[in-house]
Amino acid sequence: MAPFSKILGLIPARMGSKSVPGKNMKLLDGTPLIQYTFEAAEQSELLNTILVSTDCPETAFFSNCFAKITAPFLRPANLATDYSPMIDVANHALNYAEEHLGAFEYIVLLQPTCPFRAPGIIDEAIRHVVRQNADSLVTLRKIPDAFNPHWAYAFGQNGLEKVVERHTFTRRQDLPATYHRDGEIYITRTALIREGLITGGKAIAWLNDHAFGINIDTPADWARAENLVQQWKKQTKNIFSY
User: Fold this and answer.
1) Do 193 and 169 fall within a single domain?
2) Are residues 112 and 231 both part of a single domain?
3) Residues of the signal sequence (predicted)?
4) Domain count of the chain?
5) What pTM did the predictor assign?
6) Which of 139, 144, 174, 209 is most buried as measured by Cβ atoms within 10 A of its Cβ?
7) Residue 161 structural domain
8) Are residues 135 and 41 in the same domain?
């Protein structure tokens, strides 16, 4: 690990979810959803500081009960709407961190809607971005062949149209691999945050293939998480405590 790299962990936790009300503090198998991300962040050896950015007093109080987690401010209302850009939230937290704790090289954004991170993945991703001297990193997952954009269609003005026009692939075996952001980890150089970007510059990926990937956005996602959580806890019981 390069000695110059000081890493800020940021957990954004807005209280205004409409699809799953009270999502961050909602109990998933008896554990508040956000606690899964707290546990993963506290296992990291490379996060120097872990801040929670929230507009919810209950979430802030709960955050401050953890040894390595702190919610030292309440996010202003203009940064807690359905339309508030995440880059503005990151800049707000970075302003606080730099004023009180000094400069940081990278921000690691950890969304609480992704409760089932693989053990050790945060530090593995940090080491990867520093080793590659990259400006940003996102965790990706392979898109299943059935949903590959090369086989996707849309209804246009002239009828049915292929979404990707460049090639026609008739066999699954010929499809190029494509990937989607899974939301688990974003790492960004702080200089890039100041430019208004979470992903950019020399951008690299961490390919995620563990079986528990989920980003909870809808009631259906929550139901799927409830179906996975017991197996997840069984596999990680010696690493995380719930």
Assistant:
1) no
2) yes
3) none
4) 2
5) 0.91
6) 139
7) 144-177
8) yes
